[in-house]
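Forwarding the complex inputs:
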Amino acid sequence: MIVGKLKDVDEIKDMLPEDLESLFIIGCGTCVSVSLAGGEREAKSLRDLLELYFRSQGRDVKVNTATIKRQCDDEFIDSEELAISEHDVVLSLACGVGVQHLGIKHPGKMILPGVNTTFYGRNSDVGEWEEMCLGCGDCILDDFAGVCPVARCSKSLINGPCGGSQDGKCEVDDEIDCGWDLIYNRAKEIGQLDRLLSYEGPKDWSTARDGGVRSHKNPEFFSE
Amino acid sequence: MAEYISKLEQLLEEGEFVVCSEMGPPIGADPEFIRKKCDDVKGYVDAVNITDNQTAIIRMSSIAAAKIAMEEGLEMIIQITGRDRNRIGIQSDLLGASALGLSNVLCLTGDHQCFGNDEDAKNVFDLDSVSIIKACQQMTEEGRLINGNELKTEPPRLYYGGAHNPFADPFEMHMMKLEKKIEAGMKFIQTQCIYNLEKFDYWMEEVRKRGLHEKCHIMAGILPTRSVKALRMMKKFVAGMDVPDYTIERMEAAEDKKAEGVKMAVDIINHVKEIEGVRGVHLMPVAWEEITPVVVEKANLYPRPEV
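Prediction (whole assembly, two chains):
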Protein backbone atom coordinates (compact mmCIF):
# COMPACT_ATOMS: atom_id res chain seq x y z
CA MET A 1 0.00 0.00 0.00
CA ILE A 2 0.95 3.67 -0.17
CA VAL A 3 2.34 4.63 3.21
CA GLY A 4 2.13 8.14 4.59
CA LYS A 5 2.96 10.19 7.64
CA LEU A 6 0.84 13.02 9.01
CA LYS A 7 2.66 16.35 8.77
CA ASP A 8 3.58 18.22 11.94
CA VAL A 9 0.75 20.46 13.02
CA ASP A 10 3.11 23.48 12.95
CA GLU A 11 3.88 22.89 9.27
CA ILE A 12 0.16 22.62 8.54
CA LYS A 13 -0.56 25.85 10.47
CA ASP A 14 2.11 27.64 8.45
CA MET A 15 0.57 26.70 5.10
CA LEU A 16 -2.91 27.98 5.96
CA PRO A 17 -3.82 31.45 4.65
CA GLU A 18 -4.00 34.21 7.25
CA ASP A 19 -7.50 35.29 6.23
CA LEU A 20 -8.88 31.73 6.42
CA GLU A 21 -12.54 31.53 7.44
CA SER A 22 -13.39 27.90 6.83
CA LEU A 23 -11.30 24.74 6.47
CA PHE A 24 -12.45 21.33 5.29
CA ILE A 25 -10.20 18.45 6.37
CA ILE A 26 -10.77 15.37 4.23
CA GLY A 27 -9.40 12.05 5.42
CA CYS A 28 -8.81 9.16 3.04
CA GLY A 29 -10.17 5.78 4.04
CA THR A 30 -7.81 3.39 2.28
CA CYS A 31 -3.96 3.31 2.26
CA VAL A 32 -3.14 6.26 4.53
CA SER A 33 -5.90 5.25 6.87
CA VAL A 34 -4.26 1.84 7.35
CA SER A 35 -0.87 3.48 7.82
CA LEU A 36 -2.45 5.67 10.56
CA ALA A 37 -1.58 8.88 8.75
CA GLY A 38 -4.70 10.34 7.17
CA GLY A 39 -7.83 8.39 8.05
CA GLU A 40 -10.92 9.41 10.02
CA ARG A 41 -9.14 9.26 13.38
CA GLU A 42 -6.32 11.56 12.23
CA ALA A 43 -8.75 13.96 10.49
CA LYS A 44 -10.78 14.40 13.66
CA SER A 45 -7.86 14.84 16.01
CA LEU A 46 -6.28 17.34 13.63
CA ARG A 47 -9.58 19.25 13.55
CA ASP A 48 -9.61 19.40 17.38
CA LEU A 49 -6.03 20.64 17.49
CA LEU A 50 -6.60 23.31 14.86
CA GLU A 51 -9.84 24.49 16.49
CA LEU A 52 -7.95 24.89 19.74
CA TYR A 53 -5.22 26.79 17.97
CA PHE A 54 -7.59 29.17 16.17
CA ARG A 55 -9.46 29.83 19.41
CA SER A 56 -6.22 30.60 21.23
CA GLN A 57 -5.46 33.11 18.47
CA GLY A 58 -8.88 34.69 18.82
CA ARG A 59 -9.72 33.69 15.25
CA ASP A 60 -13.14 32.51 14.16
CA VAL A 61 -12.38 29.71 11.75
CA LYS A 62 -14.90 27.00 10.97
CA VAL A 63 -13.23 23.56 10.74
CA ASN A 64 -15.14 20.53 9.44
CA THR A 65 -14.07 17.04 8.50
CA ALA A 66 -15.21 14.14 6.38
CA THR A 67 -13.47 10.92 5.43
CA ILE A 68 -14.10 9.27 2.11
CA LYS A 69 -13.10 5.84 0.92
CA ARG A 70 -10.58 6.93 -1.75
CA GLN A 71 -9.63 10.43 -2.83
CA CYS A 72 -8.03 9.11 -6.02
CA ASP A 73 -11.35 7.99 -7.48
CA ASP A 74 -14.29 10.10 -8.74
CA GLU A 75 -16.75 7.56 -7.48
CA PHE A 76 -15.98 8.48 -3.88
CA ILE A 77 -15.24 12.20 -4.03
CA ASP A 78 -18.47 13.28 -5.75
CA SER A 79 -20.39 12.97 -2.46
CA GLU A 80 -18.29 15.79 -0.94
CA GLU A 81 -18.65 18.21 -3.82
CA LEU A 82 -21.06 20.55 -2.04
CA ALA A 83 -19.07 20.57 1.21
CA ILE A 84 -15.86 21.31 -0.68
CA SER A 85 -17.48 24.27 -2.43
CA GLU A 86 -18.68 25.68 0.91
CA HIS A 87 -15.17 25.94 2.46
CA ASP A 88 -12.31 28.36 1.66
CA VAL A 89 -9.62 25.75 1.79
CA VAL A 90 -9.42 21.95 1.71
CA LEU A 91 -6.74 20.12 3.68
CA SER A 92 -6.44 16.67 2.18
CA LEU A 93 -5.01 13.88 4.31
CA ALA A 94 -4.68 11.58 1.30
CA CYS A 95 -1.42 10.65 -0.36
CA GLY A 96 -0.06 12.96 -3.05
CA VAL A 97 -2.32 11.25 -5.56
CA GLY A 98 -5.51 12.09 -3.69
CA VAL A 99 -4.47 15.70 -3.08
CA GLN A 100 -3.90 16.24 -6.80
CA HIS A 101 -7.01 14.38 -7.87
CA LEU A 102 -9.11 16.71 -5.67
CA GLY A 103 -7.33 19.64 -7.31
CA ILE A 104 -8.16 18.39 -10.79
CA LYS A 105 -11.80 17.92 -9.82
CA HIS A 106 -12.02 21.30 -8.09
CA PRO A 107 -10.23 23.91 -10.16
CA GLY A 108 -9.98 27.22 -8.37
CA LYS A 109 -10.08 25.62 -4.92
CA MET A 110 -6.99 25.68 -2.72
CA ILE A 111 -6.19 22.05 -1.81
CA LEU A 112 -3.37 21.64 0.72
CA PRO A 113 -1.49 18.45 1.67
CA GLY A 114 -1.67 17.29 5.27
CA VAL A 115 0.31 14.09 4.82
CA ASN A 116 3.80 13.29 3.57
CA THR A 117 3.55 10.36 1.18
CA THR A 118 6.54 8.24 2.16
CA PHE A 119 6.70 5.01 0.16
CA TYR A 120 5.06 1.80 -1.06
CA GLY A 121 5.45 -0.48 1.89
CA ARG A 122 4.15 -3.22 4.10
CA ASN A 123 2.92 -3.19 7.66
CA SER A 124 5.98 -4.78 9.30
CA ASP A 125 4.89 -4.52 12.93
CA VAL A 126 2.27 -2.73 14.99
CA GLY A 127 2.67 0.92 14.01
CA GLU A 128 5.66 0.18 11.75
CA TRP A 129 5.95 0.23 7.96
CA GLU A 130 8.79 -0.77 5.67
CA GLU A 131 9.54 0.23 2.10
CA MET A 132 9.23 -2.66 -0.35
CA CYS A 133 8.74 -1.26 -3.86
CA LEU A 134 9.84 1.75 -5.89
CA GLY A 135 7.28 1.43 -8.64
CA CYS A 136 10.01 1.19 -11.28
CA GLY A 137 7.61 -0.23 -13.85
CA ASP A 138 9.66 -3.32 -14.68
CA CYS A 139 9.45 -5.89 -11.90
CA ILE A 140 12.60 -8.01 -11.50
CA LEU A 141 11.68 -9.82 -8.29
CA ASP A 142 11.88 -13.17 -10.08
CA ASP A 143 15.64 -12.72 -10.54
CA PHE A 144 16.35 -11.80 -6.92
CA ALA A 145 14.61 -14.48 -4.88
CA GLY A 146 11.61 -12.21 -4.39
CA VAL A 147 13.51 -9.43 -2.58
CA CYS A 148 13.79 -6.16 -4.49
CA PRO A 149 17.36 -4.83 -4.82
CA VAL A 150 16.07 -1.57 -6.26
CA ALA A 151 13.88 -0.69 -3.29
CA ARG A 152 15.64 -2.51 -0.48
CA CYS A 153 19.32 -1.78 -1.15
CA SER A 154 20.10 1.85 -0.20
CA LYS A 155 22.08 2.16 -3.45
CA SER A 156 19.71 0.07 -5.62
CA LEU A 157 22.64 -2.20 -6.56
CA ILE A 158 21.76 -5.13 -8.77
CA ASN A 159 25.07 -7.02 -8.88
CA GLY A 160 25.63 -7.70 -5.21
CA PRO A 161 26.32 -5.85 -1.96
CA CYS A 162 28.64 -2.87 -1.60
CA GLY A 163 31.66 -3.01 0.69
CA GLY A 164 29.70 -1.25 3.41
CA SER A 165 27.40 -4.19 4.04
CA GLN A 166 28.46 -5.83 7.28
CA ASP A 167 26.76 -8.52 9.36
CA GLY A 168 23.49 -8.03 7.55
CA LYS A 169 23.32 -4.29 8.12
CA CYS A 170 23.51 -1.36 5.70
CA GLU A 171 26.31 1.24 5.86
CA VAL A 172 23.69 3.99 5.92
CA ASP A 173 22.23 2.96 9.28
CA ASP A 174 22.47 -0.05 11.61
CA GLU A 175 18.68 -0.03 11.76
CA ILE A 176 18.47 -0.81 8.03
CA ASP A 177 18.85 -4.42 6.91
CA CYS A 178 21.25 -4.86 4.00
CA GLY A 179 18.99 -5.62 1.04
CA TRP A 180 21.62 -7.89 -0.47
CA ASP A 181 21.93 -9.88 2.71
CA LEU A 182 18.16 -10.48 2.52
CA ILE A 183 18.39 -11.44 -1.15
CA TYR A 184 21.32 -13.77 -0.54
CA ASN A 185 19.75 -15.54 2.42
CA ARG A 186 16.41 -16.03 0.74
CA ALA A 187 18.05 -17.26 -2.47
CA LYS A 188 19.96 -19.78 -0.36
CA GLU A 189 16.79 -20.91 1.40
CA ILE A 190 14.91 -21.51 -1.84
CA GLY A 191 17.88 -22.98 -3.71
CA GLN A 192 18.31 -20.12 -6.18
CA LEU A 193 21.82 -18.89 -5.40
CA ASP A 194 22.95 -19.71 -8.94
CA ARG A 195 20.56 -17.08 -10.29
CA LEU A 196 22.52 -14.37 -8.48
CA LEU A 197 25.82 -15.25 -10.12
CA SER A 198 25.27 -13.85 -13.59
CA TYR A 199 26.18 -10.28 -14.47
CA GLU A 200 23.20 -7.92 -14.54
CA GLY A 201 23.60 -5.14 -17.06
CA PRO A 202 22.48 -1.64 -16.06
CA LYS A 203 18.76 -1.57 -15.31
CA ASP A 204 16.28 -0.20 -17.84
CA TRP A 205 14.90 2.91 -16.16
CA SER A 206 12.74 4.00 -19.07
CA THR A 207 9.71 2.40 -17.41
CA ALA A 208 10.35 4.32 -14.20
CA ARG A 209 9.97 8.03 -13.48
CA ASP A 210 13.13 8.52 -15.57
CA GLY A 211 11.15 7.75 -18.72
CA GLY A 212 9.02 10.83 -18.15
CA VAL A 213 5.61 11.21 -16.54
CA ARG A 214 3.87 7.85 -16.72
CA SER A 215 0.32 6.84 -17.56
CA HIS A 216 -1.21 3.73 -18.99
CA LYS A 217 -4.42 2.57 -20.55
CA ASN A 218 -6.06 -0.79 -20.22
CA PRO A 219 -6.62 -2.00 -23.80
CA GLU A 220 -9.96 -3.49 -22.78
CA PHE A 221 -11.30 0.05 -22.62
CA PHE A 222 -9.46 1.56 -25.55
CA SER A 223 -9.85 -0.12 -28.91
CA GLU A 224 -7.79 1.09 -31.86
CA MET B 1 57.57 -6.64 -26.02
CA ALA B 2 53.89 -6.38 -25.32
CA GLU B 3 52.42 -2.93 -25.59
CA TYR B 4 51.13 -1.88 -22.24
CA ILE B 5 48.29 0.53 -21.61
CA SER B 6 50.01 2.01 -18.59
CA LYS B 7 53.11 1.78 -16.45
CA LEU B 8 50.98 0.21 -13.72
CA GLU B 9 49.95 -2.56 -16.09
CA GLN B 10 53.54 -3.09 -17.18
CA LEU B 11 54.83 -3.41 -13.61
CA LEU B 12 52.08 -5.81 -12.60
CA GLU B 13 52.38 -7.89 -15.76
CA GLU B 14 56.16 -8.06 -15.47
CA GLY B 15 55.95 -9.37 -11.93
CA GLU B 16 57.18 -6.40 -9.92
CA PHE B 17 55.84 -6.07 -6.38
CA VAL B 18 53.93 -2.82 -6.92
CA VAL B 19 53.56 0.04 -4.44
CA CYS B 20 50.59 2.39 -4.77
CA SER B 21 49.49 5.19 -2.51
CA GLU B 22 46.47 7.42 -2.21
CA MET B 23 45.98 11.15 -2.49
CA GLY B 24 42.90 13.18 -1.60
CA PRO B 25 42.29 16.24 -3.80
CA PRO B 26 41.75 19.60 -2.07
CA ILE B 27 38.42 21.04 -0.98
CA GLY B 28 39.18 23.96 -3.25
CA ALA B 29 40.65 24.77 -6.62
CA ASP B 30 44.35 25.20 -5.80
CA PRO B 31 46.59 23.14 -8.11
CA GLU B 32 49.61 23.87 -5.89
CA PHE B 33 48.03 21.75 -3.14
CA ILE B 34 48.37 18.71 -5.40
CA ARG B 35 51.84 19.59 -6.68
CA LYS B 36 53.14 19.79 -3.11
CA LYS B 37 51.70 16.37 -2.30
CA CYS B 38 53.36 14.95 -5.42
CA ASP B 39 56.78 16.01 -4.13
CA ASP B 40 56.22 13.96 -0.98
CA VAL B 41 55.79 10.64 -2.77
CA LYS B 42 57.68 11.04 -6.05
CA GLY B 43 60.08 8.14 -6.52
CA TYR B 44 58.64 6.17 -3.60
CA VAL B 45 55.52 4.76 -5.21
CA ASP B 46 54.69 3.34 -8.64
CA ALA B 47 51.23 4.82 -8.93
CA VAL B 48 48.94 7.09 -6.94
CA ASN B 49 45.15 6.79 -6.57
CA ILE B 50 43.27 10.01 -6.57
CA THR B 51 39.93 9.76 -4.84
CA ASP B 52 36.52 10.70 -6.24
CA ASN B 53 34.78 12.81 -3.60
CA GLN B 54 35.56 10.20 -0.96
CA THR B 55 33.15 9.87 1.94
CA ALA B 56 30.82 12.02 -0.20
CA ILE B 57 32.68 15.23 0.63
CA ILE B 58 32.99 17.61 -2.32
CA ARG B 59 36.58 17.99 -3.54
CA MET B 60 38.36 18.82 -6.78
CA SER B 61 37.44 16.18 -9.36
CA SER B 62 39.58 13.06 -9.50
CA ILE B 63 40.33 13.48 -13.21
CA ALA B 64 41.35 17.14 -12.93
CA ALA B 65 43.55 16.48 -9.91
CA ALA B 66 45.10 13.42 -11.55
CA LYS B 67 45.96 15.44 -14.65
CA ILE B 68 47.81 18.00 -12.51
CA ALA B 69 49.68 15.24 -10.68
CA MET B 70 50.52 13.44 -13.92
CA GLU B 71 52.17 16.60 -15.20
CA GLU B 72 54.41 16.40 -12.14
CA GLY B 73 55.61 13.03 -13.40
CA LEU B 74 53.46 10.65 -11.35
CA GLU B 75 51.62 7.59 -12.64
CA MET B 76 48.01 8.16 -11.59
CA ILE B 77 44.98 5.97 -10.95
CA ILE B 78 41.73 7.90 -11.20
CA GLN B 79 38.76 6.74 -9.15
CA ILE B 80 35.23 6.69 -10.51
CA THR B 81 32.18 6.03 -8.38
CA GLY B 82 28.59 5.48 -9.41
CA ARG B 83 27.17 7.77 -6.77
CA ASP B 84 27.23 11.09 -8.59
CA ARG B 85 26.98 10.28 -12.31
CA ASN B 86 24.80 8.07 -14.45
CA ARG B 87 25.96 5.89 -17.35
CA ILE B 88 26.11 8.94 -19.61
CA GLY B 89 28.37 10.92 -17.29
CA ILE B 90 30.60 8.01 -16.36
CA GLN B 91 31.33 6.86 -19.89
CA SER B 92 31.91 10.43 -20.99
CA ASP B 93 34.41 10.94 -18.15
CA LEU B 94 36.18 7.67 -18.96
CA LEU B 95 36.64 8.77 -22.56
CA GLY B 96 37.91 12.15 -21.37
CA ALA B 97 40.32 10.62 -18.86
CA SER B 98 41.84 8.39 -21.50
CA ALA B 99 42.18 11.33 -23.90
CA LEU B 100 44.11 13.20 -21.21
CA GLY B 101 46.48 10.24 -20.84
CA LEU B 102 44.93 8.98 -17.62
CA SER B 103 44.53 5.26 -18.28
CA ASN B 104 44.36 3.65 -14.85
CA VAL B 105 40.89 3.60 -13.32
CA LEU B 106 39.63 2.24 -10.03
CA CYS B 107 35.91 1.52 -10.38
CA LEU B 108 33.86 1.86 -7.20
CA THR B 109 30.22 1.94 -6.18
CA GLY B 110 30.88 4.91 -3.89
CA ASP B 111 30.10 5.77 -0.28
CA HIS B 112 26.50 6.73 0.37
CA GLN B 113 26.02 10.50 0.52
CA CYS B 114 24.91 10.21 4.15
CA PHE B 115 28.61 10.09 5.15
CA GLY B 116 29.36 13.55 3.82
CA ASN B 117 28.06 17.08 4.21
CA ASP B 118 25.31 16.77 1.61
CA GLU B 119 23.00 14.19 3.09
CA ASP B 120 20.13 15.90 1.30
CA ALA B 121 21.65 15.26 -2.15
CA LYS B 122 19.96 12.99 -4.67
CA ASN B 123 22.19 10.00 -5.41
CA VAL B 124 22.53 8.23 -8.74
CA PHE B 125 23.91 4.66 -8.55
CA ASP B 126 22.78 4.03 -12.13
CA LEU B 127 25.90 1.89 -12.57
CA ASP B 128 27.48 -0.16 -9.79
CA SER B 129 31.16 -1.10 -9.52
CA VAL B 130 30.61 -4.20 -11.67
CA SER B 131 28.91 -2.34 -14.48
CA ILE B 132 31.53 0.45 -14.42
CA ILE B 133 34.19 -2.24 -14.88
CA LYS B 134 32.11 -3.72 -17.68
CA ALA B 135 31.81 -0.27 -19.31
CA CYS B 136 35.63 0.10 -19.22
CA GLN B 137 36.05 -3.37 -20.69
CA GLN B 138 33.54 -2.84 -23.50
CA MET B 139 34.89 0.57 -24.46
CA THR B 140 38.55 -0.47 -24.33
CA GLU B 141 38.38 -3.93 -25.79
CA GLU B 142 35.34 -3.81 -28.03
CA GLY B 143 35.20 -0.12 -28.90
CA ARG B 144 31.55 0.18 -27.93
CA LEU B 145 29.45 1.81 -25.27
CA ILE B 146 27.12 0.12 -22.79
CA ASN B 147 24.18 0.83 -25.10
CA GLY B 148 25.92 -1.17 -27.83
CA ASN B 149 26.76 1.79 -30.05
CA GLU B 150 30.22 1.77 -31.56
CA LEU B 151 32.63 4.56 -30.74
CA LYS B 152 33.23 6.86 -33.70
CA THR B 153 36.94 7.47 -33.06
CA GLU B 154 39.77 5.73 -31.23
CA PRO B 155 38.55 3.65 -28.27
CA PRO B 156 39.89 4.67 -24.87
CA ARG B 157 42.97 2.95 -23.44
CA LEU B 158 41.89 2.00 -19.95
CA TYR B 159 43.50 -0.28 -17.37
CA TYR B 160 40.75 -0.88 -14.85
CA GLY B 161 40.52 -2.27 -11.39
CA GLY B 162 38.22 -2.44 -8.44
CA ALA B 163 38.15 -2.79 -4.68
CA HIS B 164 37.26 -5.63 -2.39
CA ASN B 165 36.75 -5.97 1.34
CA PRO B 166 38.15 -9.34 2.50
CA PHE B 167 36.62 -8.77 5.93
CA ALA B 168 33.00 -8.24 4.97
CA ASP B 169 30.45 -10.81 6.06
CA PRO B 170 28.83 -13.00 4.91
CA PHE B 171 32.01 -14.07 3.19
CA GLU B 172 30.43 -16.05 0.34
CA MET B 173 28.11 -13.23 -0.67
CA HIS B 174 31.01 -10.81 -1.00
CA MET B 175 33.07 -13.41 -2.87
CA MET B 176 30.18 -13.69 -5.33
CA LYS B 177 30.50 -10.00 -6.10
CA LEU B 178 34.29 -10.27 -6.44
CA GLU B 179 33.90 -13.08 -8.96
CA LYS B 180 31.40 -10.98 -10.91
CA LYS B 181 33.93 -8.14 -11.11
CA ILE B 182 36.62 -10.49 -12.35
CA GLU B 183 34.17 -11.94 -14.86
CA ALA B 184 33.46 -8.39 -16.05
CA GLY B 185 37.17 -7.98 -16.80
CA MET B 186 38.69 -6.37 -13.69
CA LYS B 187 42.50 -6.33 -14.06
CA PHE B 188 43.54 -5.44 -10.52
CA ILE B 189 42.13 -5.20 -7.00
CA GLN B 190 43.05 -2.91 -4.17
CA THR B 191 41.75 -4.34 -0.92
CA GLN B 192 40.24 -2.70 2.14
CA CYS B 193 42.89 -1.86 4.78
CA ILE B 194 44.28 -4.91 6.51
CA TYR B 195 44.81 -5.21 10.25
CA ASN B 196 43.41 -8.70 10.79
CA LEU B 197 46.08 -10.88 9.16
CA GLU B 198 44.46 -14.24 10.00
CA LYS B 199 41.31 -13.20 8.18
CA PHE B 200 43.30 -11.82 5.24
CA ASP B 201 45.27 -15.07 4.98
CA TYR B 202 42.01 -17.00 4.93
CA TRP B 203 40.62 -14.76 2.18
CA MET B 204 43.76 -15.22 0.08
CA GLU B 205 43.50 -18.97 0.58
CA GLU B 206 39.94 -18.87 -0.81
CA VAL B 207 41.10 -16.59 -3.64
CA ARG B 208 43.80 -19.11 -4.61
CA LYS B 209 41.39 -22.05 -4.33
CA ARG B 210 39.19 -20.34 -6.93
CA GLY B 211 42.17 -19.34 -9.07
CA LEU B 212 41.19 -15.67 -8.85
CA HIS B 213 44.78 -14.51 -8.19
CA GLU B 214 45.63 -15.75 -11.67
CA LYS B 215 42.89 -13.70 -13.28
CA CYS B 216 43.59 -10.38 -11.60
CA HIS B 217 46.42 -8.69 -9.69
CA ILE B 218 45.81 -8.25 -5.98
CA MET B 219 47.22 -5.32 -4.03
CA ALA B 220 46.87 -5.38 -0.27
CA GLY B 221 45.50 -2.24 1.40
CA ILE B 222 47.69 -0.80 4.16
CA LEU B 223 46.62 2.08 6.39
CA PRO B 224 49.48 3.36 8.57
CA THR B 225 48.10 5.11 11.62
CA ARG B 226 49.63 6.84 14.61
CA SER B 227 46.99 6.83 17.31
CA VAL B 228 44.83 4.55 19.43
CA LYS B 229 41.95 6.93 18.81
CA ALA B 230 42.16 6.49 15.03
CA LEU B 231 42.19 2.70 15.36
CA ARG B 232 39.21 2.78 17.71
CA MET B 233 37.32 5.13 15.37
CA MET B 234 37.93 2.82 12.42
CA LYS B 235 36.84 -0.22 14.38
CA LYS B 236 33.65 1.46 15.48
CA PHE B 237 32.59 3.75 12.66
CA VAL B 238 34.10 2.68 9.35
CA ALA B 239 31.81 0.24 7.58
CA GLY B 240 33.53 -3.06 6.87
CA MET B 241 36.78 -2.32 8.77
CA ASP B 242 38.21 -5.11 10.91
CA VAL B 243 40.58 -3.83 13.59
CA PRO B 244 41.42 -6.60 16.08
CA ASP B 245 41.81 -5.73 19.77
CA TYR B 246 45.45 -6.88 19.73
CA THR B 247 46.26 -4.12 17.22
CA ILE B 248 44.74 -1.50 19.49
CA GLU B 249 46.54 -2.95 22.54
CA ARG B 250 49.84 -2.88 20.67
CA MET B 251 49.40 0.81 19.89
CA GLU B 252 48.32 1.53 23.48
CA ALA B 253 51.49 -0.07 24.81
CA ALA B 254 53.79 1.86 22.48
CA GLU B 255 55.64 4.90 23.80
CA ASP B 256 56.40 6.40 20.40
CA LYS B 257 53.05 6.08 18.61
CA LYS B 258 54.34 7.36 15.26
CA ALA B 259 57.24 4.91 15.19
CA GLU B 260 54.89 2.11 16.20
CA GLY B 261 52.44 3.06 13.45
CA VAL B 262 55.20 2.79 10.87
CA LYS B 263 56.41 -0.48 12.37
CA MET B 264 52.90 -1.95 12.31
CA ALA B 265 52.48 -1.01 8.66
CA VAL B 266 55.89 -2.49 7.79
CA ASP B 267 55.04 -5.70 9.65
CA ILE B 268 51.81 -6.05 7.67
CA ILE B 269 53.64 -5.35 4.39
CA ASN B 270 56.29 -7.96 5.23
CA HIS B 271 53.56 -10.46 5.98
CA VAL B 272 51.48 -9.93 2.83
CA LYS B 273 54.59 -9.80 0.62
CA GLU B 274 55.16 -13.47 1.33
CA ILE B 275 51.60 -14.53 0.44
CA GLU B 276 51.21 -16.25 -2.89
CA GLY B 277 49.00 -14.12 -5.11
CA VAL B 278 49.62 -10.74 -3.45
CA ARG B 279 51.17 -8.57 -6.13
CA GLY B 280 51.64 -5.31 -4.35
CA VAL B 281 50.51 -2.95 -1.63
CA HIS B 282 48.27 0.07 -1.63
CA LEU B 283 49.15 2.60 1.08
CA MET B 284 46.37 4.82 2.40
CA PRO B 285 47.74 6.87 5.29
CA VAL B 286 44.67 9.03 5.88
CA ALA B 287 45.76 12.54 6.97
CA TRP B 288 49.38 11.26 7.28
CA GLU B 289 50.39 11.14 3.63
CA GLU B 290 53.94 12.34 4.36
CA ILE B 291 54.69 9.04 6.09
CA THR B 292 54.43 7.06 2.83
CA PRO B 293 58.16 7.37 1.88
CA VAL B 294 59.19 6.30 5.39
CA VAL B 295 57.03 3.18 5.27
CA VAL B 296 58.26 2.34 1.77
CA GLU B 297 61.90 2.65 2.80
CA LYS B 298 61.51 0.72 6.03
CA ALA B 299 59.71 -2.07 4.18
CA ASN B 300 62.73 -2.31 1.85
CA LEU B 301 60.62 -1.33 -1.12
CA TYR B 302 62.83 1.62 -2.07
CA PRO B 303 64.05 2.39 -4.70
CA ARG B 304 61.19 1.67 -7.04
CA PRO B 305 61.84 -0.02 -10.38
CA GLU B 306 62.43 2.15 -13.46
CA VAL B 307 60.36 1.40 -16.57
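Chain B touches chain A through 37 residues (CB under 8 Å).
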